[in-house]
Each structure stands twice: as C-alpha cells, then as structure tokens.
Write a structure and sequence with these properties.
The chain is mainly alpha-helical and about 60 residues long. It is built from four helices and no strands. The chain has helices at about 5-10, 10-20, 30-35, 45-60. About 0% of the residues are buried.
Length: about 60
C-alpha cells in the first residue's frame, strides 16, 4: 500500500504512513504501566492464558 493509494482515500492513513517511514515511532514506558496496571500482561502471557483459545474460536467462527 503506497501513498498514491492511501492518500486520496484516507489522508490520515497517508500521514501516519509518512511519519512511520520518516522514523517516527510510538514509545511506552512499560514498567511504569505495570505499576499503574499490575495485571498488565505480555502478548505471550495473554496468548498462553486465554488469548490463543479466544483467537482460535473467533477464527473458526468466521471460516
């Protein structure tokens, strides 16, 4: 997907794409978030605990 495609259809997407290509990234202080939200899990933990089953169920429902 390039800016010729996204630009006319959704200028916001084209702007985000340009910022990303220029090196702009989003950063979060994960350790601070874990203090604020002690139950915050990693993607791997979520998948192991319940996420994989939820995703599998959702994917099979749409198939």
């Amino acid at each position: 997907m390039d800016s010729a495609y996204t630009g006319p259809a959704a200028p916001e997407i084209a702007q985000v794409r340009e910022r990303w290509a220029a090196g702009s990234r989003w950063h979060a202080d994960i350790e601070a978030l874990r203090i604020i939200h002690p139950g915050l899990r990693t993607l791997a933990d979520w998948l192991a605990e319940s996420g994989a089953a939820l995703l599998r169920k959702r994917l099979l429902e749409t198939a």
